[in-house]
Amino acid sequence: MPLSAAELRARIKRLGISQSEAAERLGLSANGLYKQLHGERKVSRQTKIILDLIEEVQRLRDNQRQAEPPLDRQQRRDRRLAQFLYPTAPRRK
């Protein structure tokens, strides 16, 4: 089922990302996304699939955050120290 321009706009807004960030994540130029958002160009199947994946990844991350037990004071201090000493270490959002 094709995605309408209004649905695309609503889904991007629900993700809480800017149009420029959405264009980058979807592999589109800013102008290309603008045209899809305003109905000048049909929303491609590729855009819909990538948007579905972005939403699924965000949903999984949200579920993972809820499942993690809160860190105690020492663990938070250790994590901040590790991030300071090793800035290339992956950071959690």
What's the arrangement of secondary structure elements?
Blueprint: H1 5-15, H2 19-26, H3 30-37, H4 45-67, H5 73-85
Word description of this protein:
By secondary structure, this protein is mostly helical. It has 5 helices and no strands. Helix 2 packs across helix 3. The mean pLDDT is 87.
Task: Provide the descriptors you would attach to this structure in a database record.
434 Repressor (Amino-terminal Domain), mainly alpha, 93 residues, single chain
Could you say what the CATH topology is called?
A: 434 Repressor (Amino-terminal Domain)
Strand content: under 5%
SSE order: HHHHH
Average pLDDT taken over every residue: 87
Separation of termini? Answer: 33 Å
Structure summarized in a few sentences:
The protein has one domain (5-85): 434 Repressor (Amino-terminal Domain) (Orthogonal Bundle). It is built from five helices and no strands. With 93 residues, it is an all-alpha fold.
